[in-house]
Design brief:
Family: Belongs to the heat shock protein 70 family.
Number of helices: 13
Largest sheet: 6 strands, mixed
Keywords: ATP-binding, Nucleotide-binding
Low-confidence stretches: none
Helix content: 25-40%
Structural class: alpha+beta
InterPro entries: ATPase_NBD (IPR043129), Heat_shock_70_CS (IPR018181), HSP70_peptide-bd_sf (IPR029047), Hsp_70_fam (IPR013126)
Protein name: 5427_t:CDS:1
Bound molecules: adenosine-5'-diphosphate, magnesium ion
Number of strands: 28
GO molecular function: ATP binding; ATP-dependent protein folding chaperone
Length: 593
């Protein structure tokens, strides 16, 4: 462990990685020199592409270019979120025993990838960037998640990290990472209550955090909307132009996935332009049956198209205030992070809600979360620095956790917004005389009936010594660590018999065997990519060498043609010169290879 612990913001649309180095955070550039990387993976006949290379070729290869994979993790195939998004994605999502998998053609063969595997490829890329930057191996990371991520989603992130060769030092929420970054950089002026709104491409995540002083940041409440993000604005704009195209040209563009991809890219760009201009132009030549589509979008139309979505941003803000029992007048600071908070209308609505309060958005919203994660990684891996002494955060459980009692009723043991890590117990007993086994079903959620909550798993305490009903004392303990991972223990107080249970949701979770296979595959893909890259480099170098030689030779030939009557010394000098040039090119070529 030690110094090479990185902080990763694994985003739905963009990801970013940072590290604590020379007493400050460095955001690590990728191989394009960019400080954040599109969360895109593409497969083609010859190669696998990650980041910019994948995003840039999407309209040429729409079926095999994957984005938004984070929206699938920890979910069942029939989850409404999965079903809804499937209609918009150009890539194919299939049902594999109830779990969503992404089906692509890679190297000419049909292949299925689990969303966890796709995320592991992104993590691997970020890890690679860090290793190249540091010239050292990296194996540990703090990774950020949405604060309302449930147990299945957290487990999925852990599996993805595992496949990428990273062990997780801690999972922290995006808003808390942002708060840490603002705090470290002295960008929060007062002790008091802070509302942090993280509004990205896939989701909205709001936290109310109290800056207690002495460097302690305590989460008071979290809320969010897993179905609201910048991508949803893009969809509205795309639909608007699909209709416009139908009206203008009497043609349905949706039948052509490639055209749709080009439209989607143009719409996202227009949306971003509208954050700084009142109007954006869209010009896509021969988009469909060689029709050139030239049109425009104004900020007012954009706002109209998305009015209801924009309004929804206030709901989780109200919820955290309600849950924390704090009035909005007692909020000292409102911090905005995430790309979608660049939209002026969003800023306006939040500021109005807080009675015209000035919003704090002084940190680069694309980097702030990775920045905070890197600080946390340094703190947890024991880096010594006066600056880090001042940072401590206390997190909360995002959902209530409990077990089912008679009649299918949820019996919560840990409550939503309870501070974590925590360990809580309750005593249960048998319903029947001489009952020898006791089934413990673990649920997550806020509803009264367990059918409405999320079943995390179940286990059985067996061999209970026969006794009349109500006599055995079974103590069930829920232990939740700082990353939000749950462990359940059962203990028969009468017999001293123990049973430990790590919650694994078999419905959603990959098996150990599947993970092992994916680790092997990851290594294979990694070395294949490296070979392709090396081959490409060798080819480029050789091409440049040939070009330089050709150039030198051509120049000499031209001289020769023009100087048919030169002196002996001149010919010899020219010959010498050419030989030296070829030799020095050759030398350079050898040094570079
Ligand atoms: P995530 O963490 O979900 O990957 P980010 O915080 O990186 O998301 O934000 C990405 C989202 O922000 C995308 O939907 C992108 O279109 C949007 N976005 C980025 N810049 C702007 C801008 N200038 N105006 C409006 N939206 C923007
Ligand atoms: Mg984000």
């Amino acid at each position: 462990m030690g110094k090479n612990s990185i902080g990763i913001d694994l985003g739905t649309t963009y990801s970013c990685v940072g590290i604590w180095k020379d007493d400050k955070v460095e955001i690590i550039p990728n191989d394009h020199g960019n400080r954040f990387t599109p969360s895109y993976i593409a497969f083609s006949y010859a190669v696998r592409l990650i980041g910019e290379n994948a995003k840039n070729q999407i309209s040429m290869n729409p079926f095999n270019t994957i984005y938004d994979a984070k929206r699938l993790i920890g979910r069942q195939f029939n989850d409404p979120e999965v079903q809804l998004n499937m209609n918009y994605w150009p890539f194919q999502v299939i049902d594999m025993n109830g779990r969503p998998y992404i089906q692509v053609t890679y190297k000419g063969k049909i292949k299925q990838f689990s969303p966890v595997e796709i995320l592991s490829m992104l993590l691997c890329k970020l890890k690679d960037s860090a290793e190249i930057y540091l010239k050292e191996r990296v194996t540990v990371a703090v990774i950020t998640v949405d604060s309302n991520y449930n147990d299945s989603q957290r487990q999925a992130i852990r599996d993805a990290a595992n496949i990428a060769g990273l062990s997780i030092l801690r999972l922290i929420s995006g808003p808390i990472a942002a708060a840490i970054a603002y705090k470290l950089d002295n960008r929060i002026s007062v002790e008091g209550n802070i509302v942090i709104v993280d509004f990205g491409g896939g989701s909205l995540d709001v936290s109310l955090i109290t800056n207690i002083g002495e460097g302690v940041l305590e989460v008071m409440a979290t809320a969010g909307d897993a179905h609201l993000g910048g991508e949803d604005f893009n969809k509205r704009i795309v639909n608007y132009f699909i209709s416009e195209f139908k009206r203008k040209f009497k043609k349905d563009i949706t039948t052509d996935k490639r055209a749709l991809c080009r439209l989607r890219t143009a719409c996202e760009r227009a949306k971003c332009t509208l954050s700084s201009s009142k109007q954006a132009f869209i010009e896509i030549d021969s988009i469909f049956e060689s029709i050139d589509f030239h049109t425009s979008l104004t900020r007012d139309v954009f706002i109209n198209l998305n009015q209801d979505l924009i309004q929804r941003i206030i709901d989780p803000v109200e919820k955290v205030l309600r849950d924390a029992r704090i009035d909005k007048s007692q909020i000292h600071e409102v911090i905005l992070v995430g790309g979608s908070t660049r939209i002026p209308e969003i800023q306006k609505i939040i500021s109005n809600f807080f009675n015209g309060k000035e919003l704090n958005k002084s940190f680069n919203p694309d980097e702030v979360i990775a920045y905070g994660a890197a600080v946390k990684a340094a703190c947890l891996s024991g880096v010594r620095s006066g600056k880090l002494d001042n940072i401590l955060n206390i997190d909360v459980a995002p959902h209530s956790l409990g077990i089912e009692s008679a009649g299918g009723i949820m019996n919560p043991i840990i409550k939503r917004n309870d501070t974590i890590p925590t360990r809580k117990s309750k005593i249960f007993t048998t319903d029947l005389d001489n009952q020898t086994n006791f089934i413990i079903k673990v649920y997550e959620g806020e509803r009264v009936r367990t059918v409405d909550n999320n079943l995390l798993g179940e286990f059985e305490l067996t061999d209970i010594p026969p006794a009349p009903k109500g006599v055995p004392q079974i103590e069930v303990t829920f232990d939740i660590d700082s990353s939000g991972f749950l462990e359940v223990l059962a203990f028969n107080k009468n017999s001293g018999q123990h049973n430990k249970f790590v919650v694994t949701n078999d419905k959603n979770r990959l098996s150990n065997k599947e993970i092992e296979q994916m680790i092997k595959d990851a290594m294979k893909y990694h070395s294949e990519d490296k070979n392709v890259k090396q081959k490409e480099q060798a080819r480029n170098n050789f091409e440049r060498y040939l070009g330089n030689l050709q150039n030198a030779l051509q120049k000499t030939i031209t001289w020769f043609d023009d100087n048919q009557g030169a002196e002996k010394e001149e010919y010899e000098r020219k010959r010498e010169y050419l030989i030296n040039q070829v030799l020095s090119e050759l030398e350079e070529f050898q040094i570079n290879n």
